[in-house]
From TrEMBL:
GO molecular function: transmembrane transporter activity
Protein name as annotated: MFS allantoate transporter
Location, primary (coarse class): membrane
Coiled coil: none
Protein keywords: Membrane, Transmembrane, Transmembrane helix, Transport
Pfam family, one: MFS_1
Keyword tRNA-binding: no
Ranges that cross the membrane: 129-148, 154-176, 188-210, 225-245, 288-309, 329-350, 357-380, 386-406, 418-439, 451-471
Length: 510
């Protein structure tokens, strides 16, 4: 009996005694904790072959629908740009800067609903809520075909922004939920690259409609057909999304019961669980005190001033190079191909080298060079200026890298959803400002706007360098804490919904 009394406490008890801060979180653990506890100590074995089998199954079911929906997300909000050279300005009697405001109003809706939708993504079933938003925004886009004046366009663009606000943060959460840290960058780059496919598909569809209606005529205006085609296609994709994408591994109909637990076990290495429905005020406070939150936020604002301008004016920009309006619909499509290649290349090299941030900065450098070509080359050099435009389409690489880092480097479900919301609020603010840089009096060259874009991208390079330096420094601090003699790791702490700063086992991706 004396020996029993003298025996040391269990590892878990010792860890709780050493670190009561972590122990208090055990009463509000991740959704996965209950599934793990139900095994009653039974070990989960996940060998390399099983891991690869699960990854293939997850990729096959999750990635195709996420990719196509994200491509439509881009196309749906930029359909206005195609319509701008297909008669919408004349039919809605748009005057002065009303077109610029229609372009910006999408992001007012996005901005107004971004934080509420981030809370709903946490509180409601993730897959079902995302699907509902897709179906609703597709229906709203169809309604644009019935708009007859500027006021009607304002309403449609605003509510389109409201319901599209869920897609990017929702997809970031789905990526963090289903994939390991080492897989985040490549998966985010893949589904985000479908912005480029959306641009290619949209340009070809718009060009086909414009040429077809010119030759054969149509019962309704060509720009209305574009809105109806893209809107109905989005609704159909939303219904497929509802059927395919589960709320978590725990209710994935295309996984066997034992594979659901294995799918949870494979993301254990992330140290951030699969989801927690409870709002935690202390995580909000930590979010607001974290310098990286604000680095992400200000990057998103500054980087998306160019994005907001180019996205809504690329057709008009191409016509300023000396091409016709019909040609601008067709010649804009290679820009989408450039974006696809840049994102996939950045994601692959970043994953291979372990330097996502530094690799993504190459897209900004290419964009700066491209915009300098547009500004500096003479008006007679149409081809050179068009190539410059294509180079600017590499600019999303750092934005997507930071979006992937929200999946990888932000832990604590309330903190993750809040950082994602702030990042996308910055995204909205930048996209609202962007179209206003392209003033009507500067047409057709828009030189002041083009110089503004160059400056913005230069500032973004400096912010990215700061983010890399900060995460590298924090990793070194965490390594020192883990190496301390008195450091003790709490059992199952990866399921306790700890933030990245609370959890010393959490290593930031660079």
């Amino acid at each position: 009996m004396a020996d029993e009394k003298a025996a040391p406490p269990s590892t878990v008890e010792a860890e709780k005694h050493v670190d009561p801060t972590l122990e208090k979180h055990s009463h509000d653990a991740d959704e996965a904790m209950q599934a793990i506890q139900d095994l009653q100590g039974e070990a989960i074995e996940l060998d390399e072959a099983t891991n690869k089998r699960l990854l293939r199954r997850i990729d096959w079911h999750m990635m195709p629908i996420m990719c196509v929906v994200y491509g439509m997300n881009y196309l749906d909000k930029t359909t206005l740009s195609y319509a701008s050279v297909m008669g919408i300005k004349e039919d809605l009697s748009l005057k002065h800067d009303q077109y610029q405001w229609l372009a910006s109003l999408f992001y007012f809706g996005y901005l107004a609903w971004e934080y509420p939708t981030s809370r709903l993504l946490q509180m409601l079933p993730l897959g079902k809520y995302s699907a509902a938003c897709i179906i609703i925004w597709g229906s709203i886009l169809c309604c644009f075909a019935g708009v007859t004046n500027f006021s009607g366009g304002v309403a449609i663009r605003f509510f389109l922004g409201v319901f599209e606000a869920s897609v990017t943060p929702g997809f970031a959460l789905l990526t963090a939920q289903w994939y390991t840290k080492s897989e985040h960058s490549s998966r985010v780059n893949i589904w985000f690259s479908f912005n480029g496919w959306g641009q290619i598909f949209g340009g070809l569809v718009a060009y086909g409609i414009a040429v077809g209606t010119r030759i054969h005529g149509s019962a309704i205006d060509p720009w209305k057909i574009v809105f109806l085609v893209t809107g109905f296609l989005t609704v159909a994709l939303g219904l497929i999304f509802l059927w395919v994408v589960p709320d978590s591994q725990l209710n994935a109909r295309w996984l066997k019961k034992e594979d659901r637990l294995l799918a949870i076990a494979r993301v254990r290495v992330n140290q951030q669980g699969i989801g927690n429905k409870h709002y935690k005020k202390y995580q909000i406070v930590e979010t607001l005190m974290d310098p990286m939150t604000w680095a992400f936020f200000f990057f998103a604002i500054i980087a998306n001033i160019p994005n907001g301008g180019i996205t809504n004016f690329f057709n008009q920009l191409i016509t300023s190079f000396g091409y016709t309006e019909e040609q601008s619909l067709l010649y804009g499509t290679p820009g989408g191909a450039v974006e696809i290649v840049a994102l996939l290349l950045s994601g692959y090299i970043g994953q291979y080298t372990g330097q996502r941030i530094l690799c993504s900065m190459g897209g900004l450098v290419a964009s700066i060079v491209g915009m300098v070509l547009i500004v500096a080359l003479p008006l007679s050099n149409n081809v050179g200026r068009l190539i410059g435009y294509y180079m600017t389409q590499a600019s999303p690489t750092p934005f997507v890298a930071l979006l992937a880092l929200i999946s990888s480097n932000v832990a604590g479900y309330t903190k993750k959803t809040t950082v994602a919301a702030l990042y996308l609020i910055g995204y909205c603010a930048g996209n609202i400002i962007g179209p206003q840089a392209f003033r009507p009096e500067d047409a057709p060259r828009y030189v002041p706007a083009e110089i503004t874009l160059i400056v913005c991208w230069g500032v973004c390079l400096m912010i990215m360098a700061f983010i890399w330096w900060w995460y590298d420094r924090e990793n070194k601090k965490k390594a020192l804490k883990r190496a301390a003699p008195d450091y003790v790791r709490m059992e199952n702490q990866e399921w306790l919904d700890l933030t990245d700063r609370e959890n010393h086992e959490f290593v930031y991706s660079l």
